[in-house]
């Protein structure tokens, strides 16, 4: 049976070109798929392993209020983690058994069922849980997407949490992660697609916050000019990167 995976990390931004240059032109992500949804446009880039990166940008109207509010309050930055599951109803039952009540539950569309966990109860990040049936939409790549650089793996997502035990319980018991390393201050979890999440205990973040995103270039090294440009773009996108050659 298909298992739960950490499918992508979504980043909200008003400037898609920053994301295309960083994750495609510098980190080697290749076009996966995307399109328009009510109130926003989304597009995903794939790497040699690990989760995808999704870029979200508002397109106006009342349906874009959630993303406009996020960008106005926090600026560009990580918006949510997405988990693709085999059976969303059983997943949500496990979530509720942990005392977390899902919101935005939509189970009527047989091709895409989804629900969300609020960051206040999901350790500092919106979590989207989705069950997908059938192929994903595959429109052409956006015109502004540059040719991909040398391929990279998306090796690790670091997430700072105030309650390490509670976060580890959510990501293992409800969301299918397997603990591969645990100590007093952190826990590392993996999923079948190579996604890796490091939960870090942090009193400095009473709700939680996404830390570094780790990428490893498969062959060759990052040039100094590339590192400088990555730093500039990551700051504009509200994220922190760790790059390894």
Provide mean pLDDT, rounded: 95
Helix-strand pattern, N to C?
EHEEEHEHEEEEHEEEEHE
- Main sheet strand line-up: 2-3-4-1-5-8-7-6
Distance between the termini: 35 Å
Low-confidence spans: pLDDT under 50, at least 5 residues?
none
Number of domains: 2
Counted by DSSP, the helix tally is 5
Q: Give the name of the CATH architecture of the largest domain.
A: Roll
The CATH topology of the largest domain is what? Answer: 2,3-Dihydroxybiphenyl 1,2-Dioxygenase, domain 1
Largest sheet: 8 strands, mixed
| CATH homolog superfamily of the largest domain | 2,3-Dihydroxybiphenyl 1,2-Dioxygenase, domain 1
Using the CA coordinates, give the radius of gyration: 17 Å
Summary, kept brief:
By secondary structure, the chain is α/β, with parallel strands linked by helices. 22% of the residues lie in helices and 39% in strands. It is built from five helices and 14 strands.
